[in-house]
Amino acid sequence: MSEATPLFDKILIANRGEIALRVLRACKELGIATVAVHSTADEDAMHVRLADESVCIGPPPARDSYLNIPQILAACEITGANAVHPGYGFLSENARFAEILEAHNVAFIGPSAEHIRIMGDKIEAKRTAQRLGIPVVPGSEGGVSNEIEARKIGADIGYPVLIKATAGGGGRGMKVARTPDEMAEAFNTARQEARAAFGNDEVYIEKYLDKPRHIEVQVIGDGKGGGVHLGERDCSLQRRHQKVWEEAPSPVIDAATRAEIGGVVARAIADMGYSGAGTIEFLYENGAFNFIEMNTRLQVEHPVTEAITGIDLVIEQIRVAAGHKLSFTQDEVTFDGHAIECRINAEDPRTFAASPGRIANYHPPGGLGVRVDSAVYQGYRIPPFYDSLIGKLIVHGRTRQECMMRLRRALDEFVIDGIRTTIPLFRDLVIDEDIAAGQYDIHWLEKKLSEPAPDDRTG
């Protein structure tokens, strides 16, 4: 780096699996020493093998290891790591973790604790978005405390409505009321689920959009007045509110619309003084963007943005956290071709039941425009304690059609034996006429999966 401000001497990666390996690779390219932390179940993991140092931080349950802040802090002290990259999930959006690291003079590679906290509160996030000029879904001004108030809001904004947990995520604490008669049950059930999942039963209400697409815009800021957008990703193919397939650019967003919404969110994060990578998520219907939340971390699907921009988001995160300005301006961001990511999970492709076990054979696809982000290998035993994601297949082409054909070829090459995976699902999706035409919304996949099963190929 040519800037006078040095980068970090040693970065501890507070995560596991493919994202830990992804961060480790960026550190290696920057010449930064790495520390892997792991549970006893992950002692043979690839990121542990490749890191310069490794520290066992506890037994398999995440609460005793990857969520164990004292143990991670102790690993920093033992190894002399002066920065922590949280990856995604686990502690990546934990404001208290960021504050504790800062109090011990260890940099958190992510935004400030204040911004994590604001955007982690769905109501405060919506208020902040409105204040910054980001379009939002019509709904309640804040938390809704009782059924009478809920019914009034429903009548004011019109049915159907969506009741959502303030502290929610991953689809939990969300219920739809399509008519006034359904409000009482939906409202009370959402509160009960929110209390059970998050220890907080506060909910808010928004207009429910019938056939929206899930469009998110990648942003990054340097906390010094710099803020850019890196285009959108279409994440509409979902199952139970969990993304399955992501692509960039969206098949339904043109260059003018991209520049317009991108400009709005880039100005917003610059005005916030936001530092690091983030994603502004919208529901998009009838040409209108409706803010739903901001993720203050690196997303699972960030590689599709990297593919069409040529910008390494993890390296940029590290630079910004070390006090550097962004290495590029908005005018220098260009979009080249089309990229699609498929999330490969160790799950049955029809029932989605988890399929932990030993990988007997492993052969990832290759060739021009094909990237596989995975930390598994032949003989690796997938532990049953964590998320089922075992890899991501990212394919890039000059056009969407070329990208789809390349994806079809790559999926046919992909071999993972010994466990069940979702590869057969993607082999079906890539030849579907609706997908080929880009004609799908957030409900499309659920409807598709409810149809009678086709030939259930293994993979």
TrEMBL record:
One of its GO terms (biological process) is malonyl-CoA biosynthetic process. Residues 126-322 form the ATP-grasp domain. Keywords: ATP-binding, Biotin, Fatty acid biosynthesis, Fatty acid metabolism, Ligase, Lipid biosynthesis, Lipid metabolism, Magnesium, Metal-binding, Nucleotide-binding. The keyword tRNA-binding does not apply. It holds the Pfam family Biotin_carb_N. Coiled coil: none annotated. Pathway: Lipid metabolism; malonyl-CoA biosynthesis; malonyl-CoA from acetyl-CoA: step 1/1. Its EC number is 6.3.4.14. GO terms for molecular function: ATP binding; biotin carboxylase activity; metal ion binding. It is an enzyme of class 6 (ligase). Acetyl-CoA carboxylase is a heterohexamer of biotin carboxyl carrier protein, biotin carboxylase and the two subunits of carboxyl transferase in a 2:2 complex. NCBIfam families: accC (TIGR00514), PRK08591.1 (NF006367). This is Biotin carboxylase. It comes from Bauldia litoralis. The lineage of its organism: Bacteria, Pseudomonadati, Pseudomonadota, Alphaproteobacteria, Hyphomicrobiales.
